Amino acid sequence: EHAASGRAKFVRVQAFKPATAGAAAAAAVATAPAAGRSCCSPVVQLHSQRQLPVCNSSRSRVRVHASRSAGVAAKQDFRSKPANQVNVLVVGPTGYIGRFVTKELIARGYNVTALAREQAGIKGKMGKEDTKKELAGAQVVFGDVTDLQSLRDSAFSGPVDVVVSCLASRTGGKKDSWAIDYQATKNVLDVARERGASHFVLLSAICVQKPLLEFQRAKLKLEADLQAAGDISYSIVRPTAFFKSLAGQVELVKGGKPYVMFGDGKLASCKPISEQDLARFMADCITDADKANAVLPIGGPGKALTAKEQAEILFRLTGLPPKYFPVPLALMDGVIGIFDLLAKIFPALEDSAEFGRIGRYYAAESMLVWDEARGAYDADATPSYGSDTLEAFFAKALREGLQGQELGDQAVFGVGE
Q1: How many angstroms from the chain centroid is the CA of residue 353?
Q2: Please, which residues have CB within 8 angstroms of residue 47's CB and are 6 or more apart in sequence?
């Protein structure tokens, strides 16, 4: 993924994984890992010293002063300070993962500032007071990540040592992906550098290692900009599937319906990680020096699971006889082809075709580290972290329901919304 820059870099590897989208030709994609949107690739450590350009924006210019690696190292003293003396800014704090990350940082005692929209949460249902209540313990400020001056006046009005970005496009549509996964996140990075922040923790996705979708390309370009900055250290976290993205068929199976899967249910596999475990890992990126200047693929504990194996867990927990509804992958290809054709006549349908491609991607591609040399996914090379298991999550969901696990705008075809 660094080849496009034409610059040689030293690389060290670890593993990581993404989340998936709602559902495809019914509910099958609801159990494919939906990234918020996330993807995987080996841990990459980069060393580079070069002059930095002046960064431009459509709103105004952000001037960043060049600094060498020694200068970056000098700014890393925040790791030696008590948590209550470290100022951490979280952008995207009301998103699904952002909420867990913000609360974990508060629990660890950091001085947390959370930048939110005035109408936040799923479909903008949270007002200012709702957001403040949800993120109690943080200083909640309201601003616009698409506006550089708004960022300066709100999120960066005081000193910031570390930025944790949980920004992600709400739909994965083409324009939304470049507006949020790239440009809005780049705005935050530009102002962070302008104001002298020391470290940037980026929530990316494991699937960017095989970028076939627009949101993956947008995330990958932002990763490259962050790695090339030179005056701020970084941790790029690429998680595997989130538990919530595999929960789309829990209620269907509980109600006696068949489990919908593509092909034989063995086309792809993942090592899902719980949202709380991922939040802990991201918080570790602030204190752990070995996570600095690295791309960090990360999955949950246990073996990689195919869709068929996930279904078997559900049937075992419910005590119901296994029933499956296999969907040919070619059906999804046909749907995508139709939307691509219609989009040439009706441009508004362009994102519908992209949503179809997202569903197909998660149905056919594993959320594991990709071994380029072998041309295959490698479960053993995908790092595991945490203690929460998918089986325990399914058991709780069957007992208590899925409140709080809604996919919202990230639901595909409305499944799991």
Answers
A1: 22
A2: 9, 10, 69, 293
Cross-strand pairs, 270? 305, 367
Q: How far apart, in whole angstroms, are the C-alpha atoms of residue 272 and residue 288?
A: 23
Please check whether residue 235 is in contact with residue 283, taking contact to mean a CB–CB distance below 8 angstroms. Answer: no
Q: What CA–CA distance (Å, rounded) separates 60 from 56?
A: 7
In SS3 terms, 112-176 reads as EEEEECCCECHHHCECHHHHHHHCCCCEEEECCCCCHHHHHHCCCCCCCCEEEECCCCCCCCHHH
Mean pLDDT (the chain) is 82
Least confident range from 28-32, 52-56, 285-289: namely 52-56
Which residues are registered as beta bridge partners of 90?
A: 114, 164
Q: How far is CA 125 from CA 94, 116, 117, 227, 304, in A?
A: 11, 13, 11, 35, 35
Residues 68-95, mean pLDDT to the nearest whole number: 82
Q: How many CB atoms are located within 10 Å of the residue 216 CB? A: 26
Q: Determine how β-strand 111-116 pairs with β-strand 87-91.
A: parallel
Residue 348 CB contacts under 8 Å (≥ 6 apart), including other chains: none
Q: What's the rounded mean pLDDT across residues 318-332? A: 93
DSSP result, 9-49: -----------B-S-SSSSGGGGSPBPSS-------B----
Structure tokens at 97: 């993962």
Region 138-162: mean pLDDT is 96
303 or 57, greater pLDDT: 303
pTM: 0.80
Q: What would the two tokens of residue 256 be?
A: 């006696």
- What phi and psi values does residue 297 have, to the nearest 5 degrees? -65, 145
Q: What is the pLDDT of residue 379?
A: 96
- The residues, any chain, with a CB within 8 Å of residue 409's CB and separated by 6 or more, are 122, 123, 170, 171
Q: 210: Cβ–Cβ under 8 A, 6 or more apart, which residues?
A: 39, 216, 365, 370
Interval 262-283: pLDDT, tens: 999 999 999 999 999 999 999 9
Name the pLDDT band for 190 (thresholds 50, 70, 90). very high
| Res 72: pLDDT | 58
Contact between 159 and 75 under an 8 Å Cβ cutoff? The reply is no
Q: Is the torsion defined by CA of 34, 39, 40, 46 positive or negative?
A: negative
By 3-state DSSP, what share of the chain in percent is helix, strand and coil, each rounded to 5? 40, 15, 40
